[in-house]
Amino acid sequence: MSAPLKETAPPPAGRTSAKAPAKAGERRGEGVTLNAFSHGFLALWALMIVLPLLWLVLSSFKTDAQIAGSAFGWPENWTFDVFSRAWEKGIGDYFLNTVVVLVFSVPLTMLFGSMAAYVLARYPFPGNRFLYYFFVAGAMFPVFLALVPLFFMVKRLDMLNTYQGLILVYVAYSMPFTVFFMHAFFRTLPTAVFEAAILDGASHTRTFFQVMLPMAKPGLISVGIFNTLGQWNQFILPTVLMQPQSGDDPERYVLTQGLIQLQQQQGYASDLPVLFAGVTIAMIPMLVVYLSFQRQVQAGLTSATLK
Amino acid sequence: MRKGQYRFVAGFLLVPVALYLIFVIWPYIQTFGYSLTDWKGQSQTFSFVGLDNYEALFRDDIFMGAIWHNILFLVFIPVITILLALFFAFMLNAGGRGRAGGVSGVAGSKFYRVVYFFPQVLSLAILAVLFRAVYRSDGGGMLNGALVKLGLVDADRPVEWLNEPDFVLWALIVVVVWHGVGFYLVLFSAAMQSIPKDIYEAALIDGASRGQSFFRITLPLLWDSVQTAWVYLGIAAMDMFILVSTMTSGEFGGGPDHHSEVMATVMMRNFLYYGKSGYACAMGVIMLLLTLILSVVMLRATRRERIEF
């Protein structure tokens, strides 16, 4: 730990005891200006985050004419009609599509991801290292590399524009991070508990589900939040895989796709408040998840990058 | 290992490995093969054309322009984001008026951390809608509205943020920075908090100013996180598909007149719009190569002696 200490400035050579109080006063002055300075910048950035979002939510209460007229008019009639209009105009369907996909994809991601991670973390077998790197390597490549063959693969399986197709693809693409994270987690769990369970006659499968998985709960929560956010916000995969294949096919757009769809329709029939209301509706679950799991979200996303 | 264990291991690995192979690994590998064909994607008939697609790529001005835009993003996005995040993280953790000469965070740093991080949980699609509204080219746009109010812009001739070739890339950079700063701030904060306080105190006693303690203590000890941030931001700058394709004009974005094109948008247009699957695959391979080169170069360039504490 001596390296950085050596780099710090040595005390000024000619420093006398008479000079010391002046120096301390200087530092206090520096502290005060710095404090005001830092608060100013911090508050400014906080405003720059909050204001556009508030402005957008407020805009959903305005009329089209008001929106086009001036950016800073105050909405005149506070009706919530626009939210039900947005819901009926497609946001409801997009929302439900996303929920249907995530209800299956997130638990399946967690299940398969932890199964693979558990076996790789705790059972030595030939090829273990290879398989681990095989899983983790997937995180290094841009998804664009796979898009064209992926489209035809899903098409050949007859799963384009179906929920199950998107669910399987989400699970597969969430594997690298989930395996990576849970692998690290299962390694830290005590071996004694595992041995006790086996000695008591539990099978390996049972030990996993009834002993190890519950012990890994904190890790599961972090990965779960991360996967939920990631899959909820996914845009590229559904853009390629969730297009109606013929005119009779139902639109199975997910929320992100649906919002962009709505935005593009604005070019033809202007109904901006509906679009803004749609964004507000899409923002609320994220805000709720984030505020209630704020610490885990930050910790989960940071540890995702730190490795 | 006993026989029962092999069965258990194989059983647990079967589904995850199968899914991963079918939907991730196999498509990755196939891309290389398809990139050597003139496949249109409509039928299974295609012929081997060797490196023709790659040769055509180098003569494709739009794709070459797109690479150039990606490089611009690559230079500016990480630098601006990391500088801002470092600045704010240092303010949050060491900007406060230290009692008894110590170093402390500013009041309300918890609140700031929560607010700053929020854009990170919003989807990029939401950002696209939000910033299209902010950048509207009439008085109804937040930016133009504010500038008109301040008298900086003529109300009859507002700025066309997203349709002006000179502005469009910057407008996009602002969105990415707005989105990313909070995340990297939290990342750097976590690293800063693990630096022992007595190091700062020792430096203060030795007469170091705050600036000195930042550059001589904080930054060197944070170098690992900065390096990670650099690589991740670099990879994000190579992508940019969502924002460009949804905020700028044209099929899959790229407008005005290809001034904001990135590799990903050119690729998606060729694949989904023109149906040139083989050609799009060649672009995918180029994107992979550039991303790999980028990671290696950045990891090498930022390599320092690791400091343990």
UniProtKB/TrEMBL annotation, chain A:
Signal peptide positions (record): none
Highest taxon of source: Bacteria
Annotated membrane topology: Multi-pass membrane protein
Region (Disordered): 1-26
GO cellular component: plasma membrane
Keywords: Cell membrane, Membrane, Sugar transport, Transmembrane, Transmembrane helix, Transport
GO terms, biological process: transmembrane transport
Cell membrane listed as a keyword: yes
Ranges of residues in domain ABC transmembrane type-1: 95-293
Main subcellular location of this protein, as a coarse class: membrane
Compartment(s) where it occurs, according to its Swiss-Prot or TrEMBL record: Cell membrane
Stated family: Belongs to the binding-protein-dependent transport system permease family.
Protein name according to UniProt: ABC-type sugar transport system, permease component
Automatic annotation (TrEMBL), chain B:
GO CC annotation terms, alphabetical: plasma membrane
Family annotation (SUPFAM superfamilies): MetI-like
Pfam families with a match to the protein in the record: BPD_transp_1 (PF00528)
Membrane-spanning ranges: 7-29, 67-93, 114-135, 167-187, 229-248, 277-299
Keyword RNA-binding applies: no
Domain ABC transmembrane type-1 residue range list: 67-298
Protein's name according to its UniProt entry: ABC-type sugar transport system, permease component
Organism: Streptomyces glaucescens
